[in-house]
């Protein structure tokens, strides 16, 4: 008997305000055509004034709980991946815990920027397999619009806000690749690449700061590292590319998604793509894509999924799971 962390429900929340590419043309030397061709992004959602990461995360979590047929008090732990917590502390996860009305359990944030959801899933899987928790809400939620330098056309057109959540539950498997749940994970970071993608503010400066990115360099690392970690996670699971029903990638740039799928030898009709509607929502992008993929009827119970992401740190990784 093998303990597996099995997905029991998924849900998401997107803020009401949708911003099409054309809206940037008024204030920046950019165009809808440049943004579409270079990134695949057509629109993104921006949080309303006063709308926070923990509020969006709470809404996504409620939808995931509803899909799972569970109540907040059925949950043992909340693991929230974010780089845009409402405050320096407490964690956004404890604010979600309170927002849901949970009276027990524990909650904490995971900070691995765009790779955050992959790191959070890996942590939650370990908690479940170690018997520390039976049911874990794993959330990715971000308000990257609050980190933008609106005069920097090379970054401010790329990002969006939103939240996605899954409920993981301990289940019993046979130890084979036919089991439902998380089958393998592969995570990495390399702090030597800090300057490539960072925010120039924080406790040390007394400011929130703005996101700065060496786009071309990050692009190069992304294509190389995402296919490497994707293959490594499949190897650990005892599977190969041909077994993958869906790649559910971090949604940063359609060209990165396509190049990675090509290197993984997985055709694009087996890749869940949402970047056109959400932009890059950092740690929220994979759970948003999972939720949208289920709602579209793409992801079905029993499907083999490969999720992969890379972001600031650099931090990157992949998780193989059977839905
Ligand atoms: O989620 C974390 C991981 N992040 C990523 O994976 C992002 C990785 N990087 C990328 O997606 C791409 O590098 C970008 C979308 C950021 C940029 O695309 P690119 O094809 O690498 O363009 P570039 O940076 O080489 O810029 C090409 C040109 C430049 O003009 P010059 O120097 O050739 O005259 C830029 O100034 O495009 C210009 N440019 C723009 N033009 C119109 C940059 N941003 C814009 C813009 N509108 N918004």
Q: Main traits of this protein?
A:
323 residues; alpha/beta; Peroxisomal Thiolase, Chain A, domain 1; five-stranded mixed sheet; four-stranded mixed sheet; binds oxa(dethia)-CoA
Quick summary:
By secondary structure, the chain is of the alpha/beta class.
> Architecture of the largest domain, CATH level 2?
3-Layer(aba) Sandwich
H and E order: EEHEHEHEHEHEEEEHEHHHEE
How many structurally independent domains? 2
User: What compounds sit in this structure?
Assistant: oxa(dethia)-CoA
Main sheet makeup = 5 strands, mixed
- Low-pLDDT parts are none
The radius of gyration is 18 Å
Name the helicity range: 25-40%
Specify the CATH homologous superfamily of the largest domain: Thiolase/Chalcone synthase
- Total helices: the number is 9
Structural class: alpha/beta
Top-tier CATH class of the largest domain: Alpha Beta
Global geometry:
globular
Report how far the terminal alpha carbons are from each other: 19 Å
